[in-house]
Specification:
By secondary structure, the chain is α+β, with helices and mostly antiparallel strands. About 35% of the residues lie in helices and about 30% in strands. It has two domains: about 80 residues, no CATH class; about 100 residues, ORF SCO4226, nickel-binding ferredoxin-like monomer (Alpha-Beta Plaits), CATH 3.30.70.
Length: about 190
């Protein structure tokens, strides 16, 4: 998970898209093999997920773009309602819903055994179901430091209610626009 200011986010995204449209083997993407998977952007901060071979490789890629990230964290697991046997988030937003990135300071969560992650997933999804159609859990990136959770809702107060019922923090909560990319520079870099 990489978080950067909006200008750096645009630099990364534009470089990734330009590299995908070009056969230039000298691009940072084709040299390093780092592929943008998802972007979550607000006016102030962008959250970006990548397929990256190693953290040092990711650092080298960002340095090649002259980007200094606010945050650069390896995610170990992508959690979702499906992990607990629940429904996959819809492919489109429900009427009136917006997308939010929720940061949760939960040291060690990404390093927990799979059984614990399933238990966490079940608990989170049970609360979502209790709160009704006003909130939908899409997925979460689990790091050694905490989580970056993607929720959809028509009322951000429901995110705070979910956090209260789950007994876990939800701060900050950032409204974002989400874009999914199908880029793969890993094969080219080898």
């Amino acid at each position: 998970m990489v978080s950067v200011d909006a200008a750096a986010g645009k630099t990364i995204r534009d470089s990734q898209l330009a590299a995908s449209a070009s056969l230039n083997k000298d691009s940072p993407e084709r040299s390093h093999g780092e592929s943008l998977l998802e972007e979550f952007r607000s006016d102030d901060v962008w959250f970006l997920t990548f397929s990256a071979a190693t953290q040092p490789a990711m650092e080298a890629y960002l340095a090649a773009l002259d980007v200094v990230p606010d945050t650069l964290l390896e995610f170990f697991f992508v959690n979702s309602p499906v992990v607990a046997g629940g429904p996959k988030a819809g492919d489109t937003l429900r009427e009136g819903h917006k997308v939010y990135m929720i940061q949760r300071d939960l040291p060690g969560v990404g390093l927990l055994p799979h059984e614990e992650l399933v238990k966490i997933s079940r608990g989170s999804q049970a609360i979502v179901e209790k709160l009704g159609d006003g909130v939908e859990w899409d997925h979460s990136y689990l790091t050694a430091e905490g989580t970056y959770c993607v929720y959809r809702t028509s009322d951000p107060a429901l995110i705070q209610e979910h956090a209260k019922l789950a007994g876990i923090p939800a701060d900050p909560v950032t409204e974002v626009e989400q874009a999914i990319h199908f880029l793969d520079f890993a094969q080219v870099a080898q």
